[in-house]
Amino acid sequence: xxxxxxxxxxxxxxxxxxxxxxxxxxxxxxxxxxxxxESWFLARCFDELLVLGVRGVVSFADPVPRRDVSGALxxxxxxxxxxxATNAVYMGRATPRTVKLLPNGVVLNGRMAQKVRxxxxxxxxxxxxxxxxxxxxxxxxxxxxxxxxxALxxxxARxxxxxxxxxxxxxxxxxxxxxxxxRLGLPAIAPFPKTPDAR
Length: 199
Fold this sequence. Notes:
- The protein has helices at residues 37-51, 81-85, 110-118, 123-132, 144-155, 176-180, and strands spanning 2-7, 21-28, 56-61, 66-67, 73-75, 89-93, 97-101, 107-108, 158-162, 166-171.
- By secondary structure, it is α+β, with helices and mostly antiparallel strands.
- A 5-stranded mixed β-sheet has the order 1-2-3-10-6, with no helix packed on it. A 3-stranded antiparallel β-sheet has the order 8-7-9.
- A hairpin with a 5-residue loop joins strand 7 and strand 8.
- The longest helix has 15 residues, at 37-51.
């Protein structure tokens, strides 16, 4: 069981960035975990975060299933049922965008592409992924922007329109009054989404 937390400004910047708010970028449970492990684990994480002064957690749920070029399902879409069940505030969908879908069903997101273009820390992972899919090796002296463009063509990456991920916010506090005193940058949206997108 694992929850990766990344510090980021809370929606609307009501909380001090990188101090009072974090992003839950991954919430992963193994099949061996008991049925109530999700809510128990999140509650323990939130207790620890409160001790550190964190008052808000932002998380996202991608409702679009991902398939590889053969049509095999590699990632099911989800609407954030665990966030709904643990009292997150639903904040609607993020901005619609076009994503770059690789033949193995993985999305090469904008941040990964930016790391390659600028050769920022972590660019090796994205480059290795593309090379494993058939892209040529990035040679010394090659412009990374040009290489990325050519690598995406070489592996057969395709554009897919995405309506936007679902956004959720957890307001952390010792009691309901404490939690509800935290202002959100956007109005809460109801009702919760119930079914993943068809594509």
